[in-house]
Design the sequence.
């Protein structure tokens, strides 16, 4: 099952990369864009298959260790992007979104493949119904922020401008609500499991820093203080913080959240 | 008077709040990296949080006024719900900060160690209005097949004036909650039972904590009961292979005065030689639980704040103006 999962994940990376190339290349030609969309959908389906296989192998939803979380949140990112393209003209942003997703998924294939094939029993602190909802909301918020950063990058190019900054603001608002859900539900859980709802654990601290930068963005955008370049730069900075909250804290800073 | 108004305007403005939020973000990032653990208890950081609380309270009160004015203007239910959501979420944050403040002033926290059969009077540990006693009936570690711990369980009885009130299985994710006191499964340890001849000549079995010193008779050597290893393997050194007691050993060291003579490992129930004709026998271990006990009168406040924050954010996001023009004219 492990070998099959690795093969599928390579297929996902390949589809996303190919889709990215077509999105960039065929920026203005309809047939190429259609092919890119089909490849992205295929990749997304394979990605889903990998998640299903991992769920079958582990006997629980793929939300408990580093590679599982990475796979889940990138899948949400791509799915969210594909669903939004049905309603909004987001084709030109596809290249950036697909490249980011391909890079993140390839990390699983190259650096975390061992963990993908092994199943370790849950540690006592994780045995709680809060696990699923805390991690899913975190993964969804990361996905929204990744997508927002990808779209923000494209807004810098006049040709790539897909949607108004106002729609970006709505997307970030959704991500912010999800991150807030994840943090508050995590605090409720931490109070039961660790005896305190806030411990200034590295993950908590960096999630708060991430939360603050998006809170600042929402306030500044809303009061029309910062729009255009500055607001988009904040979204890109926010995404870097999201990545640090995941990679930096999981792999560099030891703490209560060291499950990777 | 004008100056007072200026100050009030400054303290209650959203700009000040955002600068404070930015400072808290920067300070958290820097503090977590440079002074992990201690930074968040410094007066500087606490002052930032207090200032944010003050600013948000004033800012929200001001907002309440404008929201009321808006209400009178018939703006439509969508805009109204959005305003209510934004108010709720800021109110929620204020409650969370207040809850944390109450804990800082009124909260109590301690840790208790209990072996099976032992009990503790809670009024000796925390200042409580309604005293009660906690008795540990059993502490056990459940294991997975691979030897990793699956759950830590303290079987507890709550007593009031000697009368049993209730039994509860406290484990990680399931604390005891009684009369405003919560007891969480925090940690555990082992006492080591040793049979030896004491200096007065009596042959006896005593319990020692890890790290304790033992002075047997007929020698000037002392023994340090260094550590209990539930699943010993020389290749892993001082680290247990798993926490399951598949191959229990004791690691001990022997001293003459201050001088370390040697380090050894011993199985249970086998005579272990310390000196010529001086032996001791490790009989077994007695596990004890460590419970974190806590009284946090601010917890209901913080929880209410958390719920309001979530309700408010969901309400505000779901009713966000979908049209571009509406967004620009949104408050």
Sequence:
């Amino acid at each position: 099952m492990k070998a099959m999962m690795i093969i599928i994940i390579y297929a996902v990376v390949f589809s996303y990369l190919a889709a990215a190339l077509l999105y960039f290349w065929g920026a203005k030609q309809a047939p190429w864009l259609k092919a890119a969309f089909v490849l992205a959908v295929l990749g997304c389906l394979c990605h889903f298959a990998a998640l299903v296989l991992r769920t079958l192998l582990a006997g629980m939803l793929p939300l408990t260790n580093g590679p599982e979380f990475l796979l889940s949140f990138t899948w949400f990112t791509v799915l969210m992007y594909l669903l939004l393209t049905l309603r909004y003209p987001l084709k030109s942003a596809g290249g950036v979104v697909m490249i980011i997703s391909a890079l993140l998924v390839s990390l699983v294939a190259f650096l975390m493949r061992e963990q993908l094939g092994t199943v370790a029993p849950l540690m006592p602190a994780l045995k709680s119904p809060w696990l699923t909802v805390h991690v899913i909301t975190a993964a969804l918020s990361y996905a929204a922020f990744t997508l927002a950063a990808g779209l923000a990058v494209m807004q810098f190019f006049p040709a790539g401008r897909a949607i108004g900054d106002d729609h970006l603001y709505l997307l970030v608002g959704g991500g912010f609500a999800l991150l807030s859900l994840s943090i508050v539900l995590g605090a409720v859980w931490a109070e039961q499991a660790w005896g305190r709802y806030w411990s200034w654990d590295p993950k908590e601290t960096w999630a708060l820093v991430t939360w603050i930068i998006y809170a600042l963005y929402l306030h500044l955008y809303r009061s029309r203080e910062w729009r255009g370049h500055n607001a988009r730069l904040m979204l890109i900075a926010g995404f870097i913080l999201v990545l640090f909250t995941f990679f930096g804290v999981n792999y560099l800073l030891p703490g209560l959240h060291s499950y990777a | 008077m004008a100056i007072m108004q200026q100050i009030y305007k400054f303290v209650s403005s959203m700009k000040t709040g955002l600068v404070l939020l930015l400072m808290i973000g920067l300070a958290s990032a820097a503090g977590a990296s440079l002074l992990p653990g201690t930074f968040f208890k410094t007066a500087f950081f606490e002052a930032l949080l207090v200032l944010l609380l003050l600013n948000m309270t004033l800012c929200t009160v001001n907002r309440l006024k404008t929201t009321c004015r808006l209400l009178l203007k018939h703006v439509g239910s969508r805009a109204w719900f959005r305003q209510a959501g934004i108010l709720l979420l800021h109110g929620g944050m204020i409650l969370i900060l207040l809850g944390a403040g109450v804990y800082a002033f009124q909260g109590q926290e301690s840790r208790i160690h209990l072996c099976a059969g032992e009990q503790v009077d809670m009024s000796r540990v925390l200042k409580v209005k309604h005293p009660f006693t906690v008795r540990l009936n059993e502490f056990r570690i459940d294991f997975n097949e691979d030897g990793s711990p699956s759950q830590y369980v303290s079987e507890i009885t709550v007593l009031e004036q000697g009368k049993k009130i209730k039994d509860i299985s406290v484990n990680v994710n399931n604390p005891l909650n009684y009369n405003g006191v919560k007891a969480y499964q925090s940690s555990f340890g082992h006492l080591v039972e040793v049979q030896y001849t004491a200096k007065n000549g009596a042959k006896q079995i005593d319990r020692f904590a890890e790290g304790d010193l033992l002075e047997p008779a007929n020698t000037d050597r002392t023994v340090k009961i260094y550590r209990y290893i539930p699943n010993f393997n020389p290749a892993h050194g001082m680290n247990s292979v798993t926490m399951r007691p598949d191959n229990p050993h004791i690691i001990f060291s022997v001293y003459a005065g201050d001088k370390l003579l040697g380090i050894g490992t011993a199985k249970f129930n086998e005579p272990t030689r310390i000196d010529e004709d001086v032996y001791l026998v490790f009989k077994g271990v007695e596990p004890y639980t460590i419970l974190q006990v806590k009284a946090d009168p601010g917890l209901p406040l913080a929880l209410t704040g958390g719920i309001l924050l979530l309700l408010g954010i969901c309400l505000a996001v779901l009713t966000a103006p979908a049209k571009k023009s509406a967004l620009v004219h949104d408050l």
